[in-house]
Amino acid sequence: MTLAASRRKCHTSQVITIAQLELEARRSQDPERLQELATHKSSLVRCRVSTNPNTTDAMIEQLLADIDGSVRMWAASALAERPALYANAAESPHRWVRASLATVFSRHDDRSLPYPIQRALADDEFYETRKGVASTTNFADIFDRLLADDDPRVRGWCAANPRIALNQMEQLVADKSSTVRRLTAALGLRYPSDEQLVRLARDRSKEVRWAVLFRPDRPREAVEIIAMDSDDINRRHAESALVSNGYIMSPMVETSFRTELNRAVAASPFEAPPR
Which of 32, 51, 108, 162 is a Cys-bridge partner for 264, taking CB atoms 3.0 to 4.6 Å apart? Predict the structure, then answer.
């Protein structure tokens, strides 16, 4: 066997071994073996340990502090069913762990993080963390604070929260930042209303008008306005949309939006903070 062939054989053997270890990390029920795999030199193996329901909270906490960012993210994605780790994760020195905790429950989930944890995350220095809370929080006071956040990206993501009221959406529609208005047009579900979308179709920012055009629920009047747009790309796409929506967006996009919209309509209202 040549040296090159020998190296290929060794490499193939190593790949198979890592793949086998990944499978073991996902399925093992042996705590001692899982602890060994949680410290394996391969980050792929350590990632898979996070997905194993038999992995202990102590192991997940260890992985949340891993030197590899991808391992920390995988561990953070396992936090939903581990409330004992919420407080530590909210104080993690790793910003993406905190940001992942903020969205560990989706915006349509009936479950939510405890109020003190949400308050801490809403004050986080990392905008991605606050953005996550803005789109998922179920507490009125926290949402109001984020609706006035200094960062337009955070304010814009408030539009994605299914509990938002029409008057709160109006605040975003009228925001001085085009980033906020663009995100509002792109992310809102139950709102913006038709009237608000027509106004956004006349927005001075072409990116905002583009976002309106690609909402499956925008009224025809908004499309007609954009069909006379000063921006050539916006205008041409709007002209196509007037003939058929299928020219600018797939049925899958429309179906996905309708599903999200139905979930938003069914969302429970904001709650008052606990006393």
Answer: 162
Q: What is the span of the domain harbouring residue 46?
A: 10-77
- CATH code assigned at 254: 1.25.10.10
Segment 4-47, tens digit of pLDDT: 555 555 554 555 588 899 999 999 999 999 999 999 999 999 99
Same domain (yes/no): 59, 176: no
- Is residue 260 situated within a structural domain? yes
Q: How many CA atoms lie within 13 A of 245 on its CB side?
A: 15
Helix (H, G, I), strand (E, B) or coil at 40: coil
Query: Got the DSSP string for 10-34?
Result: HHHHHHHHHHHHHHHHHH---HHHH
Query: Could you tell me the CA-to-CA distances from 128 to 70, 123, 132, 135, 267 in Å, in that order?
Result: 17, 11, 6, 11, 23
Q: Strand, helix or coil at 74? A: helix
Task: Calculate what percentage of the chain has a pLDDT beyond 90.
Answer: 85
Q: For residue 12, what are the CA distances in angstroms to 5, 17, 18, 48, 254?
A: 11, 9, 10, 20, 44
CA distances from 76 to 85, 107, 126, 263 (A): 10, 17, 16, 25
